Amino acid sequence: MARKMMSCGSWFLWILGLGIILAMVSNRCVHAVISCQDALVALLPCKPFVTSGSPSPSAPCCEGMSKLNAEASTTEERRELCRCLKDAAHDIGIMPKRAKELPQKCGVNISVPIDPNIDCDM
Fold first, then answer.
1. Engineered SS bond to 46: which of 31, 51, 61, 112, CB 3.0-4.6 Å?
2. Residues in CB range of 74: below 8 A, 6 or more apart
C-alpha cells in the first residue's frame, strides 16, 4: 500500500515537473529574441537592392523584412535590431535612399524610419 501511494505521488510530481518545464519552454519560445546574425541572414537577399541598385527587392528580401518586423515586437527588441542593422549598413555600404524605399516596395509597415543617422535609443 505504501508503495502504491509513493508511486502515485511520484507520478504526480513527475507530471507537475513536466508541466512546469513545458510552460517555461513555451514561454521562452514565444519571447525568443532574434539575434543580430539571424536578422542579417534574413535581410541578406536585400543586399543587391540596397547596394547595387537592383530594380526592385526580391521576394525573399521582402519576406525577411516582414519576418523581422513581426518578430521584433518589443521596444527593446526593435532597439537591438536597429543597432545591429545600423552597424551592418555602415559596414556594407548601403545606399540610404534605396534602404528607405524597402518598406514601401515590400509593403511592410514599420514604425521606425530607415535612416543611417537614426538614434536607436529613442
1. 61
2. none
- Under DSSP, the state recorded for 93 is T
In tens, the pLDDT along 73-93 reads 888 998 998 899 888 888 888
Q: Which of 118, 24, 30 is nearest to 74 (CA)?
A: 30
Which helix or strand (DSSP H or E) is residue 61 part of? helix 59-71
d(CA 62, CA 51): 16
Closest-CA residue to 69 (of 40, 111, 121)? 111
27 by DSSP, 3-state: which?
Answer: helix
- pTM comes to 0.69
